[in-house]
Amino acid sequence: MASRTEASRDVELERLNAELLKQNLTPTWAYYTSLITPQPKVSYAPYLWKWEVLLHYLRRAGELVDLERGAERRSFELVNPALRHIMGTTHTIGAAVQLVKPGEVAPAHRHLANAIRFIVKGRGSYTAVQGEPLYMEERDLILTPSWTWHDHGNETTEPIIWVDALDYPFNQLMQVSFFNAYPEARHPFTKPLGYTANWMGFARPTWETYAEPVPLATYRWTETARALQYLQGSEGSPFDGILLEYVNPFRQGPVLPTMACYAQLLRPGEHTRAHRHTSSAICFVLDGAGYSVLNGERFNWAPGDLFMIPPWYWHEHVNTAAEESRFFVISDKPIYDTFNLSREEAYAENGHQQRVEKTFTPMLLSGA
Length: 368
Ligand SMILES: [Fe+2]
Ligand SMILES: [Fe+2]
Fold this sequence. Notes:
six-stranded antiparallel beta sheet; binds fe (ii) ion
């Protein structure tokens, strides 16, 4: 008799659950385990883009996409197959490669999204940020902080290629995508060449208020490379090798509120210990050769390749080259730090993932 009562109660409960859903009410007692899980459930897998493929399509876009005919930028986004709905490389950051041909000037604009630019090939072109021209050399890092006017031009005779990374997927999540086109064809140069780096240094005029939340800056590769070289004999980190963070010179913190940038060096034969953390990262391979293991999958990389590490994925890097391998890395760690969401774990046992079950197969041109 009692079991029959229980059975009928179960039927009633099922009915209640179904009715609640129709009323746009979700019974927590039935769905709790999908809301709060013991470990993060990450919705996307790692991915790697080969440089030869990126370069091939940049060249084709160079023939067909015309800035004069309304294209805002000649670039394409590196979209993780599981993140097409937000056009994200990771769930917070969108990376793109961009080509600017000789004589081209891109229209000035501003957006609430923060951006960084890392120069891959070519020199002597400028990015102007808030009226300050910043001339770019290969592997320099340029910041375009949130809501700063920026444009760029190539006054040289050679094309220039760079990697852009913006926090627009995060902005979309926060529903704060704002964008303005500058009313004139170009934003005027209102500051002299070298204004921030050479004229102002670490001081700023008190009577000016700054729209930008961080000092404008070019981070010269010559200086970063020198620092990496200087430190390469030191112990570094067992998980990252020699990892340098580009810092905001006034606050010591990350270069932007949402994105941190790093230069990473792996010494010949170096095999880092596996770890995982809640933040995601995009690695741009500068030189060397080797592979990374991400949750048991091997990703072989070479110069120019870009790969990303989703949150809470075990990762270790192996340098198989006879010389150093170097990466430029962009991470969303500042977001996690701000909201006390940063967590990190070291891989146990001997520090390396025991099972490498498969090797990632990159999309190559023959398959295009
Ligand atoms: Fe922009
Ligand atoms: Fe890491």
